[in-house]
Amino acid sequence: MSDSDAESVPAGDGGADGPPDMGDLYDELEALAATVDDPEEQERVASAMRTAAAVESEGVFGRVVQGFGRGDLAEVLLGSALFGIPMLVEGGTTEVGEYMTAHPVYVAGTLAFTVALVVGILYVSDIQDVRVTDAYLGVVPRRLVGVLGGSFVFAITAMTAWGRVVWSDPELAFASVTIAWVPMAIGAALGDILPGT
Question: Does residue 180 contact residue 92 with C-beta atoms inside 8 Å?
């Protein structure tokens, strides 16, 4: 890489929000990677990016969050349980499920709202610097699938195991699980990203 290439990479100053953080460093390394054409230098930049992503900061916030593994899935299940147990013991969940069974469009709306809410928590709200890596089909983030899928499976399993739904009436069961899933998905998203893993 020439000196002119190095000079073309912008220096991070943290912007108007304050001093630079790990997200700024990661952004600069991504910009540097775009200017490098030598394979050996590309590998050095990639190695620096992996190191930057793995660096532990002292606080819970300000880390670069990427990938999705078993530890993340455990955090998803813990967050789902913490936010979802009140829904499992509350009779109102089934009452709302009965209402929604008569209005199927509300079930679809609740599902869409929950997905949008989780996307907002993970990727829009800036609670953490969440990076998309190894997306399914190159488009769907693994973390999003893990959070939504893990919390939904937990909702189905817990509602069934605790006798809150009976699958002989699948429409009511699905509507009730959908209602319970809303706070479980929120808890899953927060449980996954707040530790910054």
Answer: no
